[in-house]
Amino acid sequence: MSNESLANLLKEERRFGPSAELAAAANVTAEAYEQAKADRLGFWAEQARRLTWATEPTETLDWSNPPFAKWFADGKLNVAYNCVDRHVEAGNGERVAIHFEGEPGDSRAITYAELKDEVSRAAHALTELGVEKGDRVAVYLPMIPEAVIAMLACARIGAAHSVVFGGFSADAIAARIKDADAKVVITADGGYRRGKPSALKPAVDEAVGRVEGVQKVLVVQRTKQDVAWTEGRDVWWHEITRKQSTEHTPEAFDAEHPLFILYTSGTTGKPKGILHTSGGYLTQTAYTHHAVFDLKPETDVYWCTADVGWVTGHSYITYGPLANGATQVMYEGTPDTPHQGRFWEIVQKYGVTILYTAPTAIRTFMKWGDDIPAKFDLSSLRVLGSVGEPINPEAWMWYRKNIGADKCPIVDTWWQTETGAMMISPLPGVTETKPGSAQRALPGIAATVVDDEANEVPDGGGGYLVLTEPWPSMLRTIWGDDQRFIDTYWSRFQDRYFAGDGAKKDEDGDIWLLGRVDDVMLVSGHNISTTEVESALVSHPSVAEAAVVGAADETTGQAIVAFVILRGTANAEDEGLVADLRNHVGATLGPIAKPKRVLPVAELPKTRSGKIMRRLLRDVAENRELGDVTTLTDSSVMELIQSRLPAAP
Ligand code: WT7
């Protein structure tokens, strides 16, 4: 990104410091940065002591064969024991681990003592089905407690899980089963989605029929809908777990024992099986969950709205919170079922104190209107988190005002499936936050921004985000493909992890994420980030959401095309509004960033994890046939957008 255009972009001057009350009682103070800077490995060795080890590690990092890291390599532990049993042994068995809220309104509170029994039974059941240490188990479940129980049962017996998001197709399941060579699949008859039962097992039946090697399919009964049954292969979860003992002795595994594989879809090529291991992963998820959310396990009620099928669910529903003995809410359904206030009703019902959600959800709530959250008592909230994409400053402000009553700190957490845990984020009791910026690498983490030649950019400069030191929860490789691991992450810049995100540093040295590098546009020789133009559009009172792409253009190389969703009463046919929006971007970011076309649409194409699929919008903007739409949440969205389009000028 050229500095001249950067100077125009994102002049964000609002600042919000932590309240004196929160700062005084915060789990982590500014001293942590100093301590970690003085002795990074010593800092992580100390964090590893949050866990209970069967054999304490004496070695912190082995980086003798980069980029293949080993953390705490001579230590041994059982991850499930750390997430469950030890809390019971410490006398907290009666504490609620999971407040489950089903979409139809059924609910279930599971204490740590009950969770221990359930995980133990499931571990025995997997063993009975032939699963052994070192095997892989695929998990394809709705957002129900059995998803967490299944993951922990695998961890308990040393089998790696490969969770496949419940919205994916038979093709995606088959590809993942095959790549990981999974022996058992855990699924359910179905789950509830938008007010009705939605089947899951047929996709598994189809997938398993296409690949070799799956011996058993374990089926949770959730909706009680009819399912096809393969005798000898299919087993009901409730039938097999019911007869198992609640006593199960956890075996200690090496810190580097595989914990899970999680596939990232990526934009090109076959999905990458990101491999995470045990000790380092659990250390960093536990530490960050403690530090970034300021979690007080005795009093907080934590809620992460992600699905366990994504890394956010792995690290901040299953592993981090449970390692910390947190009480959390788990919700099965969508935010608008049965009404658009469902999330706020849940916050009120359970007295949620820490909420972790995504910008895409926040922008949707903005679009639905301020009056909806205003009907509920949200006064229990004290820390708000964001993850998944850059958060537009206006969405950040909306979140703070309408959900956080202008008092809750917002932690905008940057990380990836590959990083395993949070890497860049404010600390709620320390950081003076800036709307739209993830700001600073967490204690013990080393991140910076470099230019094309790998030179670190000065404050005020922009380029590529890189991580310059190994971290405990880093991916260890791409499953079965070490070379691809090296090529994808460690070859663009020597000795540095290439994250694939554009970023800039502001005058204070704080980091602003600008989206994937593939989403940077080149307009008349200027690099302009889609994120910044989108944020400028969202800062206009008539715009709820925006997606910007660069479309090939004869004169300027690329031209900026913006797709916008209007707020409440704004009229899509209003020509004056379109001109107004173009001028608004010009005034905010500079004339170079003014979109050539602004197209009001009703919906935007998103992946199931909520990321806008700009690739498809680029196809539309360039009048091309659409590329692969199979990872869209709703493929009819594209037809809708195309039908609304005027012919290209
Ligand atoms: C990509 C990773 C991290 C768990 C969920 C997504 C984007 C994520 C932020 C943020 C700006 C963000 C990046 C990153 N991203 N969080 N706070 N600010 N961008 O995991 O699917 O592996 O995606 O999400 O582009 O590279 P993922």
Automatic annotation (TrEMBL):
<dbReference type="InterPro" id="IPR045851">
    <property type="entry name" value="AMP-bd_C_sf"/>
</dbReference>
<keyword id="KW-0479">Metal-binding</keyword>
<feature type="domain" description="AMP-binding enzyme C-terminal">
    <location>
        <begin position="532"/>
        <end position="611"/>
    </location>
</feature>
<feature type="modified residue" description="N6-acetyllysine">
    <location>
        <position position="611"/>
    </location>
</feature>
<dbReference type="Pfam" id="PF13193">
    <property type="entry name" value="AMP-binding_C"/>
</dbReference>
<dbReference type="InterPro" id="IPR000873">
    <property type="entry name" value="AMP-dep_synth/lig_dom"/>
</dbReference>
<feature type="binding site">
    <location>
        <position position="540"/>
    </location>
    <ligand>
        <name>Mg(2+)</name>
    </ligand>
</feature>
<dbReference type="Pfam" id="PF00501">
    <property type="entry name" value="AMP-binding"/>
</dbReference>
<feature type="binding site">
    <location>
        <begin position="193"/>
        <end position="196"/>
    </location>
    <ligand>
        <name>CoA</name>
    </ligand>
</feature>
<feature type="domain" description="AMP-dependent synthetase/ligase">
    <location>
        <begin position="90"/>
        <end position="471"/>
    </location>
</feature>
<dbReference type="InterPro" id="IPR032387">
    <property type="entry name" value="ACAS_N"/>
</dbReference>
<dbReference type="InterPro" id="IPR042099">
    <property type="entry name" value="ANL_N_sf"/>
</dbReference>
<keyword id="KW-0007">Acetylation</keyword>
<dbReference type="InterPro" id="IPR011904">
    <property type="entry name" value="Ac_CoA_lig"/>
</dbReference>
<dbReference type="InterPro" id="IPR025110">
    <property type="entry name" value="AMP-bd_C"/>
</dbReference>
<feature type="binding site">
    <location>
        <begin position="412"/>
        <end position="417"/>
    </location>
    <ligand>
        <name>ATP</name>
    </ligand>
</feature>
<keyword id="KW-0547">Nucleotide-binding</keyword>
<protein>
    <recommendedName>
        <fullName>Acetyl-coenzyme A synthetase</fullName>
        <ecNumber>6.2.1.1</ecNumber>
    </recommendedName>
</protein>
<dbReference type="InterPro" id="IPR020845">
    <property type="entry name" value="AMP-binding_CS"/>
</dbReference>
<feature type="binding site">
    <location>
        <position position="524"/>
    </location>
    <ligand>
        <name>CoA</name>
    </ligand>
</feature>
<comment type="function">
    <text>Catalyzes the conversion of acetate into acetyl-CoA (AcCoA), an essential intermediate at the junction of anabolic and catabolic pathways. AcsA undergoes a two-step reaction. In the first half reaction, AcsA combines acetate with ATP to form acetyl-adenylate (AcAMP) intermediate. In the second half reaction, it can then transfer the acetyl group from AcAMP to the sulfhydryl group of CoA, forming the product AcCoA.</text>
</comment>
<dbReference type="GO" id="GO:0003987">
    <property type="term" value="F:acetate-CoA ligase activity"/>
</dbReference>
<keyword id="KW-0436">Ligase</keyword>
<feature type="binding site">
    <location>
        <position position="543"/>
    </location>
    <ligand>
        <name>Mg(2+)</name>
    </ligand>
</feature>
<dbReference type="Pfam" id="PF16177">
    <property type="entry name" value="ACAS_N"/>
</dbReference>
<feature type="binding site">
    <location>
        <begin position="388"/>
        <end position="390"/>
    </location>
    <ligand>
        <name>ATP</name>
    </ligand>
</feature>
<feature type="binding site">
    <location>
        <position position="501"/>
    </location>
    <ligand>
        <name>ATP</name>
    </ligand>
</feature>
<keyword id="KW-0067">ATP-binding</keyword>
<keyword id="KW-0460">Magnesium</keyword>
<comment type="similarity">
    <text>Belongs to the ATP-dependent AMP-binding enzyme family.</text>
</comment>
<feature type="binding site">
    <location>
        <position position="516"/>
    </location>
    <ligand>
        <name>ATP</name>
    </ligand>
</feature>
<feature type="binding site">
    <location>
        <position position="312"/>
    </location>
    <ligand>
        <name>CoA</name>
    </ligand>
</feature>
<feature type="binding site">
    <location>
        <position position="538"/>
    </location>
    <ligand>
        <name>Mg(2+)</name>
    </ligand>
</feature>
<feature type="domain" description="Acetyl-coenzyme A synthetase N-terminal">
    <location>
        <begin position="30"/>
        <end position="83"/>
    </location>
</feature>
